[in-house]
Amino acid sequence: MDGFLLQVLNGLDKGSAYALIALGLTLIFGTLGVVNFAHGALFMIGAFCAVTLQRVLNLSFETIDETKTDFLGNPLKVKTPYVESWFGPEVGATIIDWAVPLSILLAIPVMLLIGLAMERGLIKHFYKRPHADQILVTFGLAIVLQEIIKLWFGANPIQTPPPEALMGVANVGAIVGLDLPYPIWRIVYFCFAAIIIFAVFAFLQFTTFGMVVRAGMADRETVGLLGINIDRRFTIMFGMAAAVAGLAGVMYGPINPPNYHMGMDFLVLSFVVVVVGGMGSLPGAVLAGFLLGILESFASTTWATTTIPGINQIIIYLVAIIVLLTRPRGLMGRKGVMEE
Amino acid sequence: MSRSNVTRRGVLKTGAVTGAGVALPTIFTASSAAAFTNEPTGSSVTLGFNVPQTGPYADEGADELRAYELAVEHLNGEGDGGMLSTFSSKALQGNGINGKKVEYVTGDTQTKSDAARASAKSMIEKDGAIMITGGSSSGVAIAVQGLCQEAGVIFMAGLTHSNDTTGKDKKANGFRHFFNGYMSGAALAPVLAANYGNDRKAYHLTADYTWGWTQQESIAAATEALGWETVNNVLTPLAATDFSSYIAPVLNSGADVLVLNHYGGNMVNSLTNAVQFGLRDKMVDGKQFEIVVPLYSRLMARGAGENVKGIFGSTNWHWSLTDEGSKAFVKSFGTKYGFPPSQAAHTCYVQTLLYADAVTRAGSFNPCAVEEALVGGDSSLPGISSEANRGFLFDGLGNGQTLYRADDHQCFKDVLVVRGKENPTSEFDLLEVVEVTPVAQVWYEPDHPMFAGGNLGECNPGA
Hints:
- The complex is a heterodimer.
- Chain A is mainly alpha-helical.
- Chain A has a single domain (about 1-45, about 100-325), classed as Orthogonal Bundle (ABC transporter involved in vitamin B12 uptake, BtuC).
- Chain A has helices at about 1-30, 40-55, 80-85, 90-95, 100-120, 130-155, 185-205, 210-220, 220-225, 230-250, 260-275, 280-300, 300-305, 310-325, and strands at about 60-70, 75-80, 170, 180-185.
- In chain A, the strands form 2 sheets. A two-stranded antiparallel sheet of chain A has the order 1-2.
- In chain A, a hairpin with a 5-residue loop joins strand 1 and strand 2 (about 75-80).
- In chain A, about 45% of the residues are buried.
- Chain B is of the alpha/beta class.
- Chain B folds into 2 domains: about 45-180 and about 320-410, Response regulator (Rossmann fold, 3-Layer(aba) Sandwich), CATH 3.40.50.2300; about 180-315, Rossmann fold (3-Layer(aba) Sandwich).
- Helices cover about 40% and strands about 20% of the residues of chain B.
- Chain B has 13 helices and 17 strands.
- Chain B has helices at about 10-35, 60-75, 115-125, 140-150, 180-195, 210-225, 245-250, 265-275, 300-305, 325-335, 345-360, 365-375, 440; strands spanning about 45-50, 100-110, 130-135, 155, 175, 200-205, 230-235, 255-260, 285, 285-290, 290-295, 310-315, 390-395, 400-405, 410, 415-420, 430-435.
- In chain B, the strands form 4 sheets. Chain B has a 7-stranded mixed beta sheet, sandwiched between helices. A 5-stranded parallel beta sheet of chain B has the order 2-1-3-4-5, sandwiched between helices.
- In chain B, helix 2 packs parallel to helix 11 (about 345-360).
- The chains are: A mainly alpha, B alpha/beta.
- At the A-B interface, helix 1, strand 4 and helix 12 of A face helix 2, strand 7, helix 7, helix 8 and helix 9 of B.
């Protein structure tokens, strides 16, 4: 029972990342009609916002310690971070310790700007081109972005640990008398994803801006005829989708150390999530994200892999095939989307 | 009416003579220039460095390339000479290889067998590379080794740790300086037993390809021989990034040791996940839960950060060694690049020197002559009584006395058992050597079951 619940928690955790990326993909597809293969790269850039802030906070000045030597036998250069020098060792160390959560403040404007620049600078030129062209150009962009990151940060994963207070495990089953130790940061990640998903839905549901966007998603032409500059709003939505992917990446860093390829690792699966959820359906993307995350988690158990070898690698695609055969528009897909 | 002198017989004769005339020089050229593949005829010789320049092992590949460039410098008489001065063989004089200036071309393996074979093929056919070297994945190394055997060039393996490279997939044209999974197990198991006791239950997570399989088999056999029980072995896809689904079942498995047969990004992620799940703080039946990473690399340790502290593993070489060869190499590399070399860099540098030395001693680039020089000697390691203990014995390249064994082209030398350092003094000071396991302890016979089934075959000079 404990093992079963642990896999459910793992699935929810994995599903959080899928859901956040798929949500952004669906937002872009639903508003601009663009299949954005660079979305995984935005997730990766978000993670590297945390790496960047961590490095900035660790910028140091050097002093020579004559009593110690480096690997070449020269006097050792001891590095002291500027923040520790400016704010004192304790406060400085705390600021560095909380680098990942603080990165959210950096990632939001950075990702918004990157999203807007992508849409205005490149993607708007492909609105009237076939989906194949959009896929090619965004995929090419993803490769360029990932190579830039590799050039600056190298190919190896870079640790972005969570704050010390959020390390370790918590027994999430204690309330019901179960022994369910689960990493605190993964719980934080799931809660964070839930808040972001709720915020996006609330924004679209309860604000005038969101209402106009939803109207534009349903009938872009009519909204335009009402004198509303829907294109501008859709551009902003692109920026928001980029920010959602970026935030998902920022918070994912402590779970798996960021590397330049992490976006690609999530991209294909996230597209499957979008298709299973139903093209253009935001609730569908979220539902499919969590569903496939849980299924993937169970498929990786020893029982599953010994019963059906290799099931852990094909489960998502298998489910996608079954869903598409039984519900061709996906779990919550709407009629008319990508069907004309 | 004119009459033509052209007859059918005349055309045939003329054609035959012309054809022979055209073909004759080519035949002569072929027989003289193609004594072996890519025989160097000018004043230079080209080596092919086939390393991962993109993909998950790109950092490791970059370090290997640095080492190769350094080796080329030293072979051409530039720089401080590095290990040339400490190498027991004094054939190399810093005037290239056999008097020919060393040049090189590079290829990108992408850590994919097909891409690696394609780039090696291109370097051999288009660039005229006389020797191919490189590594970071056993799957890739085995694939490229097979290609070199067919093409008739020497393959000096870089970082490849699978038993199969010099086991069932060994080839006469292939040579490995790096240690292997069996040696890791033989070196590591006694240290693990000494530190964690003989009554332990191990749970293995294993990368699902040749290296993972052979390492897992080796570690399980070595630890079981000392009383440990292997409770489970779960194969994980090479492309896996999140290991939480594989880690969670460990919690309730009854195991008190987790062995991560992972390398590179896989190892960084699986270790991070294991630490996240609190395994390092867990107690099982009154015993502290432990994690073991049988194959360590400093570059990986840097990626894993704090998580490696106190974790045991093994390594082929470490920059903190104090023998003259290691010191010379670290000084050369550190002065040129500003940081110490990795074990991947070390083995690649050494392999290049060993190849150059063998060619120089043989007086020929012919792969069969090189093979004879590399492993054909009658010298042997002291203290090991075995008919297989013969080959080329050398010293001064950082691992003490080393034997390039004739029977399987595997180097035999001491193995380092290391542990993640608790209080590192710098960003490079991540591992500490806890034991130098003597070569006799990691020795095995060529027909050992873990290595059996292969056939070295005959050396192929190509053309």
